[in-house]
């Protein structure tokens, strides 16, 4: 459905790239573009058109849903195709986002420009205990480029506060490997619970992954545990008492017991079976 | 009620090493261990559970099943709770693996023994129902553990799991010791027959590893067949999901295959027990066992021919059926061969020897996959080994019973034939007792 190619060359300290995409059938298509560094990116869209191939159609560009200024052009039908091309200067995080080329009112190709995303995000919270230490980890997949460095942030309301080890060396420890990072928090308190963000730092921007930490006191699991222990003691006592009362009854009943014992559930001892032979 | 107790006890014993794997990822992260290091926890627990067989036999012979299971339950509970405070992987190896494994081995052996003591005619059904504990508990504990993990983290979950394992004490309490009325009279009745076997019984109980079992042909046949089976049985289950995903099945659907197998297993075990109790099968239970093993092996051999999901589901169902059949019968056949008194020591010896195939089987299979990069050789190897074990059992049992017939004096055979008139109920078991009466009449009356 869509083809693309890369042409990579550099001029000075900013590299230039071309990302092309061709739309044959259907009305829209999305391409994901991974960027690490600031770049002048040329986006090229080619559309093979529909049944009535008009000689001229209007094409324009959109960024994040808003039309890019001065991007409306008239596109000529050349060799059975329409082509739109524009160079965008991607320098910072604000320049990243969704860029779309639109042909008339029908065909659209979307380019999603982003730094490499952290794929394996842990969706369930980590549960730890007051006074304990916890290790929160983030990993960038092997298939994706490795980040320059890692940062850790703690959510504070709607904001994120960066965690600096030097400020509290006894509480926090950050261990970074190329593609993995671990935040160790010592001496947990209930206030330490909440969302933690790991940021993979690339030249163009920092991608975030998040992990939730729940801190509970150790009385929490203790309550069901004690409930279970009480249940066990009650059941064991009940069974043993029942048995004692049964055996007292049987003692008084005497010889009737043997025949009853053979017909009911437990089939009596093996020795009585053997004696029948 | 004894069956309920055994069901709970066996359920915990077989399912705990497997369901602990739910916690592994968290433990790995928090303690900084590698995947294989964490997987050793289960392996150590399983190995100790099997290796502890002789010690367990000793305790059961000395004190009976009830105190042993209660002790086992306490050990397990304490081990899990202590393990929750752990900060290193070696700590977990010791407390979950070694101590927990000891507790489970006490539970397993004692539960099987109490069934052999309580039941005779309905013993296959009792065995089937008790062994069904394993799939039932697996199906219950796996999601329960997930839930506990999300609520309390791995430490809290271990504490609560320890508490749940204390329920084995309840199971133990249900195992009322078998009361033998008029036993003193019986000893007086036949003192001559009893003194010699009684002494040898005591010696058997006292010996740690009773190697005289190896002189028993039936035992050796059973053991060899079992070793083959255990070696090949577990690897296909371990690798089933991975194989399905390799065939293009989606992850959740692949996981469902194992659930299907477990679910089918749950019902097949008591069902097999029921069939095995019937008039036609009971006397030929060793052959039924061999047949079940061959069936299991054939399933594995046919698996590589199966590519699409529907057929994989069918494979999982047949696997569940055959696996359940074998496991329902595995201890029943040993009880059938050994008789009441020798069973605890026999099962201890069997489990310690089974330690080796159970630890070697899956890694060997995994090694095959690594070399050939193809799962079909794994299935061929496992299927081949299991079918060999099953055929060995079938052929050797024919030989064994043939030899028994030749060795038995004709008089004893006549005696047994007249006794069949006595009780209709005993007709079904008499054929099996025909083959075993020389050993069992001695063993039972000690």
From TrEMBL, chain A:
GO terms for molecular function: cell adhesion molecule binding. It comes from the Eukaryota. InterPro entries: Cell_adhesion_signaling, Ig-like_dom, Ig-like_dom_sf, Ig-like_fold, Ig_sub. SMART domains: IG. Keywords: Disulfide bond, Glycoprotein, Immunoglobulin domain, Membrane, Transmembrane, Transmembrane helix. Its main location: membrane. The keyword Disulfide bond applies. It is a single-pass type I membrane protein. This is Embigin.
Automatic annotation (TrEMBL), chain B:
SUPFAM superfamilies: MFS general substrate transporter. Pfam families: MFS_1 (PF07690). Residues 426-439 have a biased composition (Polar residues). Residues 426-446 are annotated as: Disordered. It is found in: Basolateral cell membrane. It is a multi-pass membrane protein. It catalyses: 4-methyl-2-oxopentanoate(out) + H(+)(out) = 4-methyl-2-oxopentanoate(in) + H(+)(in); 3-methyl-2-oxobutanoate(out) + H(+)(out) = 3-methyl-2-oxobutanoate(in) + H(+)(in). This is Major facilitator superfamily (MFS) profile domain-containing protein. It comes from Cyclopterus lumpus (Lumpsucker).
